[in-house]
Write a structure and sequence with these properties.
The structure is a homodimer.
Chain A: E1 6-7, H1 12-31, H2 43-51, H3 65-81, H4 85-100, H5 110-115, H6 129-147, H7 151-166, H8 183-194, H9 197-209, H10 216-224, H11 256-273, H12 276-292, H13 324-340, H14 344-358, E2 376-377, H15 379-384, H16 404-412, E3 420-423, E4 426-429, E5 435-441, E6 444-452, E7 459-465, E8 470-477, E9 485-489, H17 495-500, E10 503-504, E11 519-522, E12 525-532, E13 536-542, E14 546-551, E15 561-566, E16 569-574, H18 575-578, E17 585-586, E18 594-599, E19 606-616, E20 625-627, E21 634-643, E22 655-656, E23 659-660
Parallel strand pairs in A: 4-8
Antiparallel strand pairs in A: 1-5, 2-22, 3-4, 5-6, 6-7, 7-13, 8-12, 9-10, 9-13, 11-12, 14-15, 15-16, 15-23, 16-21, 16-22, 17-19, 18-19, 19-21
Helix pairs in contact in A: 1-3, 1-16, 2-4, 3-4, 3-6, 3-16, 6-7, 6-8, 8-9, 8-11, 9-11, 11-12, 11-13, 12-13, 13-14
């Protein structure tokens, strides 16, 4: 039986192919400063210069090393599902360049190698050494796992040994931790590969020490004379997720990406150690993030200042930051919460971010990217309102700080790892994506073969491949947005199958017991417990109506507005379809009829939604303000909604997710 | 006949008394760094240090000299209407301190005197020398006009002579102009006093040279190596109002206060020279400001970044800048446009800014001030959203950059100068304020005695005092907000008076001819043309209903919202009266019944407005976003509206001007 994981999916495969054919080669050019008109990356130049042994100028941001590391990690995943000797040779060359820069003692960060090794470890807060190390560790593990090649892995093991000598609880060691979390989750990946307790211990140390008094960063600031850029900010050291010990943190605060990466490391350590206090901290931070500080697209980070969270229910649509990397980080976090406990809410949020706030970061041709993902755009404001200058009405080629594009690569190319997971004697299916997915459930290797047109419809066929019959629960996720659904087993005629073919309707978290006494809905999953025979087929039909949603009334920005969704997709209005001045457009009735139209030629193939709406007249004479004379004149218009992820692929114009009622 | 101008008005006199009794002494303490807990001004310290002849540290902003100058100007007006030997002695002492710092060649700016005279004139763009000179000139003229004392005037005449030698069109002169306009309008005031053409010529030079290519500021930057702080801004040199020659400027752009002060100088020069091209530029900039870029409160400056204008109809209520000085500048500009041509629109805007966006800058006790005047406030957002950190939920004691408080003093203490003006053979009444106001109309000195409870009602009684009967037109302003009004003459019985006692209703700009064939409504004024006899009495009754207003539909921020006004006053909802989460409050019907209640004990005596409104429920369970199930639950509530100028006098809380329909 073919063990290989593979995505063969009408929706995702084209994106992955775009990334493989366009994104990966394009970003390799970018890393080598060979994209005309794009900001240079300096990545390869920095490593070559560092290997030369001579001090010199370091190009780009202090964390530039991480861009190539994320690219390498993405390449590793790509090779896993699509062997490509030419690409592998390029990657081997990149790794050679990295390893060549490693210092005799194992140190490997081009910024300090080029600008002065005497200053290394003196600004853990801002200079990203440990952050870059983390990304290189992830790349090393991924590259080893797909190719079996150890060069980068061995180099990183040596580097980790050095870090473990330099930083830690013992006298003479620096009692520090990174200003930008990442190495914590990377060390846990390394630990799962090596089983070396040292790797777990170091990750745990970084997490436990963070935010303890006396604050390491204050001490470091005194000793190294580093300036503290966030003196007057509302978040202070919480920008670095270091304002307090992690177990005392209950609100998602500060820099959103740093928050997500830290929470991932916390969840990994909690799972490996069974530390209940850490689990509770993860749960509190999850709830703060997704129940009070997350956009309907799964975007997070309400303010450009500090790329940060602000306060509960503060979700401005036009000045939002919503960095692509932060939504990706939320996907990472959700996946780890699922590993702690399979709950539908985690998968719902993972799916929301993936299909909306993450995917919107990339142009359909895979060559341009959003750093910021707004929910409301007026191109004039982007140009003329300094509060919105961080919001771009079109995706950019590359960025001086290019964290997002390679982050997209590594997530999309490893998407198969997010589809399902085994938990004891249950196989949970979290995402409905076509392909073959394998897992070891109990004592048997199970391969799920999935076919679906998801997210365009909710009809999913799964077949179970395994050596010999085995008893386990197949747990199919019932998304929060699906209020009617149906599960059928083995569409051959037969009594027990007919029993299954009836309609279940979700009875809320309480759960539901199926007629055969063995099918239960718990925490957002339908558990089908039985002895599975090779070739058993399951079909789940999720009712996927277009539906308007409202935000919690405490979200002032969305008061009197609704957003249109269908299945996992959030929709939006674009000027290209609906004209300018979208603030004058209203949905009209509370629940208008929605017409669904599949348009294979549009935006790579999308289901467009159409509703009858209202447009207020923009005719106005006289002064700027005038007495109310009845309601504004309106005319009925046909509104055309497209999936949010596909916006800004037809030139620049206005866009809105939240529309007046 | 007593020629003295005097305001005796139930609304304004208390504010002026507060300024006289509290504001002026308090600000004198501030200028001398004697207000505990307030940021030091350094004003007096700088002058004493400058007079000492030794170089030393300069305290506060580079334009600190202007704070005391504006205070002195305000004192001059106060002495005019309320002689006060003790205060005059203090002012004389301040002037002594100023004059003592003047250099042998006439130079007088403490920043360069203390930090190095060799650098003077090398950064006209950012270092405010000419701006400070302008304010000192205004103070000198005002102080001379009220007290007859020449000390400061003579010092400034010498300083102006130096500036006139250093800067100008001739070879060897700097072909420069101020980065912050102000001296232009000040020189025109000086010119009206001295009649010296040199003063007009210099003002005209500053205006004509501004923005000409090659740009002086670029040249200066090259020669002096000054950094250009606005490289990456959307407005560039328009921040300084120097992006193009003034006659080519058609949009209000850049720093709002600089814009207003420049426009004032332009209007003054246009009036003195009859330059039609300059008049047209003023009219275009007026229209850009008030028809596309002004808040309903008369506030201007949509963005904190650069304290600047942004683009047409961009009027965010919560991130607004709306500096008090900018609204004051708009009042200055409006008054000068009235001098060019008496049109109701100019007076309407002057009144709108004065009663709302200007007055809101001062606490009722005269001791605390707003720099920023928002139309929507959530105190949590001020603390936690960096985009709103410039917005304060309560007025501050003093500012490191304290331009606004003394600007309020000088405007409020000279308010009598804004009430009426003579234009040829007509006496125009622009503002309805109680007191005695004199003007020379044609060949006769006329004194208007005005009695009214305005702005609480629209009933105004005027009596005309003059030596002997004279024929001229008394032009009474018909505010844009009054759609029904009535004028009566000499409430003694008599045929011709009865003819006047009928009701006029404004027929739009086309104008209206009264029954006696001599009363016309033109451009917002009712012209009563007749032979006026001593003691003639006129009564105008303006219908002053509370009315909801709408913004031009292109103002996205106000779409679906209305504001409540009554007469010249804009009203608002405060948390103190209406509870928190004001975004959930709705007006309900398009034109609800408004109940007016005079409350003498509240906020110094205000008419409160009450309407029945709706409040949407904030009850919500489950995730942050949920499918729409019909309209949100609402309950009927009693809304209590207070005048905007009086907000934030009862502790901190939410406030809103624009409320959902």
């Amino acid at each position: 039986m073919n063990q290989k994981q593979a995505i063969r999916d009408a929706f995702w495969s084209p994106f992955r192919e775009t990334v493989r054919r366009e994104g990966i080669p394009y970003q390799w050019l970018a890393l080598n400063d060979r994209v005309p008109g794009a900001e240079p990356s300096h990545w390869m130049r920095n490593f070559r210069a560092a290997a030369s042994g001579k001090p010199g100028a370091h190009g780009g941001c202090v964390f530039q090393d991480s861009d190539g590391a994320k690219w390498l990690e993405g390449v590793a995943y790509s090779l896993r599902s699509h062997p490509d000797p030419a690409l592998e040779a390029i990657a081997d060359g990149a790794i050679e360049a990295i390893v060549a820069a490693q210092q005799p003692d194992g140190y490997l960060d081009t910024y300090y190698i080029l600008t002065g090794l005497d200053r290394r470890w003196t600004n853990l807060r801002d200079n990203h050494e440990l952050y870059c190390a983390g990304h290189m560790i992830e790349a090393a593990v991924a590259y080893y796992e797909s190719t079996g090649k150890r060069a980068l892995l061995d180099a990183m093991l040596r580097y980790v040994d050095l870090i473990d000598r330099e930083i830690g609880p013992r006298r003479g060691q620096r009692h520090g931790y990174p200003g930008h979390p990442e190495i914590e989750l990377a060390l846990m990946r390394l630990y799962r590969l090596t089983g070396d307790e040292k790797h777990l211990r170091l990750a745990k140390y970084f997490i436990d020490e963070r935010g303890q008094k006396p604050l390491y960063f204050e001490q470091e600031t005194r000793e190294s004379g580093n300036d503290f850029p966030w003196k007057d900010s509302p978040f202070g050291y919480q920008y670095y997720q270091a304002g307090k010990p992690v177990r005392e943190q209950t609100d998602a605060e500060g820099h959103a990406v740093r928050a997500m990466y830290l929470y991932c490391g916390m969840a990994d350590v909690a799972r490996a150690t069974g530390d209940e206090s850490l689990v509770r901290a993860c749960e509190a931070l999850w709830e703060s993030t997704v129940r009070r500080r997350m956009y309907v697209t799964g975007a997070i980070g309400s303010s450009a200042y500090g790329e940060s969270f602000t306060f509960d229910y503060d979700l401005p649509n036009d000045t939002v930051y919503g960095e692509t990397c932060a939504a990706i980080g939320l996907v990472f976090f959700a996946r780890r919460m699922l590993a702690l406990k399979p709950r539908g809410e985690y998968a719902d949020v993972m799916e929301r971010a993936l299909y909306n706030g993450v995917l919107s970061g990339m142009q359909l041709d895979g060559k341009r990217f959003f750093y910021v993902n707004p929910l409301e755009v007026n191109p004039v404001a982007c140009a003329k309102d300094p509060n919105k200058r961080h919001v771009k009405p079109e995706r950019q080629k590359w960025f001086g700080c290019a964290c997002c594009p390679p982050n997209l690569i590594r997530l999309l190319m490893s998407l198969e790892d997010y589809v399902c997971s085994a938990d004891g004697n249950a196989l949970h299916v979290h995402l409905y994506i076509g392909g073959d997915f394998t897992a070891r459930v109990g004592s048997s290797d199970v391969r799920l073969h999935v076919e679906t047109r998801y997210p365009w419809d909710g009809d999913i066929c799964l077949s179970v491949e395994l050596e010999r019959p085995a008893s386990f629960a197949l747990a199919l996720r019932i998304p929060e947005w699906s209020h009617k659904w149906q599960i059928g087993l083995n569409d051959r005629p037969g009594a027990d199958e007919i029993a299954f073919a009836m309609v279940f309707s979700l009875q809320g978290p309480g759960g539901f017991v199926g007629v055969d006494g063995k099918t239960q809905v718990r925490d957002g999953y339908a558990y089908i417990e039985r002895e599975w025979k090779p070739g058993d087929r399951v079909r789940i039909m999720l009712d996927m109506p277009a539906q308007f949603v409202r935000a919690n009334p405490r979200v002032a920005e969305d008061a009197g507005k609704v957003a249109l969704t269908r299945g996992p997709l959030v929709y939006c209005l674009e000027e290209a379809d609906n004209g300018p001045n979208l603030h004058l457009v209203r949905v009209g009735s509370a629940q208008p009829h929605v017409r669904e139209r599949w348009q294979p030629q549009l935006l790579g193939g999308v289901t467009v939604l159409e509703t009858a709406g209202l447009r207020e007249s923009d005719e106005w004479t006289g002064p700027l303000y005038a007495p109310v004379r009845g309601a504004p004149e309106t005319q009925t218009v046909q509104l055309r909604w497209i999936p949010y992820y596909a916006w800004a692929n037809r030139g620049t114009g206005e866009m809105r997710v939240w529309v007046r009622e």
